[in-house]
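The data are quoted verbatim for reference:
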Amino acid sequence: MSSTLQIVLILAIVLLVGAAVPLLLQVRRTAQTFERFLQGAQRDLAQIAGDVHASRVRLDGLSDSLRESIDEVSGFARVLGEAGRTVKDVNGRVKQGIDLASSLVESMRGGFRNLLPTLFKSRPAQ
């Protein structure tokens, strides 16, 4: 190989290495920045995961509380329905009692109407 070719090749290698060093330094800085970004993202994601977990726990508690409230309202509605049926039964019995008393009073009135003229008939003088 000629010395000129060797010099040209050496210069080309030096230029290539000289150009590659800043490029490699930039790649290193970019990798470090990306690593910092990933670390920050990891912290953020851990915080988000914690928040999501806490929200899920609160929602679970809320759904349990809501279920208990619905059960209580359902029980109250059953009791209220039972009370309504009882009131209806009592109302029917009171009505039967009133009807019975009314027919008894009417019968007694009719009886007195027939009895009074008989009791107070004028008797012939003796």
